[in-house]
Amino acid sequence: MFIDWAKAITKVTLGGLLIGKLHSYPTFLAFLLCFYFITRIYSQKSSLVWAQNKFQILTGMTVSFLFGFIVEWLGTDLEFWIYQSYPEYFVKFPPWVPIAWALAYKTFFELEQSFINFGPVKKTTAVLLMFVTLAPYGEIVAMNLGTWHYTIYPQFLMMPWQPVVLLLLAHTFIRLLTNFIVEQRKRYE
């Protein structure tokens, strides 16, 4: 399990660094993240976890993409946070942002597989801990490289406490909705 946490932290760190360094090129970054997703899916085609869970992973990524789009649209429209170096077009956030939400779901799902043998209380605690640590950590890495900033105070490491709570609730909602969709599909198979 420690190795799985280390892998997830490494992915989140590299993702935050990549986003932080390339945020001035939003379209290129969106294509790069899509390319990463496609190559990861192709390389995992023979993976047992992928074979058993591909519908759940793709559904979760789609739900996360759509939910991320809505949350980012509302958050930037209400000016709770502002993206740097991004000219406003249709929306106030770059095109790579919902893709990053989708990839976050995949990272969380992969880490959650290491909790599979936990009891219900321990697994729930581990999943919530994952949501409340990894998502804000990735944001902190990218924010400190000038990608965006929050307009809400007080802040610690550029991160207010309100988004940490909202990230926990958002990722929990995404996970529960994905589980519901997967269960409904299984019911009608």
Structure description:
The chain is mainly alpha-helical and 189 residues long. It has one domain. The chain has helices at residues 2-22, 26-43, 48-77, 96-112, 120-143, 161-187; strands spanning 81-83, 148-150, 155-156, 159-160. It has a two-stranded antiparallel ribbon. The radius of gyration is 17 Å and the shape is globular. The protein starts with a helix and ends with a helix. The mean pLDDT is 91.
Quick synopsis:
With 189 residues, the protein is mainly alpha-helical. It contains 6 helices and 4 strands.
Low-confidence stretches: none
The side-by-side strand order for the widest beta sheet comes to 1-2
Q: What's the total helix number? A: 6
Distance between the termini: 33 Å
Determine the fraction of residues in helical runs and give it as a percent range: over 70%
Q: What would you call the shape?
A: globular
Q: How much of the residues is beta strand, in percent?
A: 5-15%
Total tally of structural domains: 1
> What are the secondary-structure elements, in order, as H or E?
HHHEHHEEEH
Please provide the count of β strands: 4
Mean pLDDT across residues: 91
Q: From the alpha-carbon coordinates, what is the Rg to the nearest angstrom?
A: 17 Å
Largest sheet: 2 strands, antiparallel
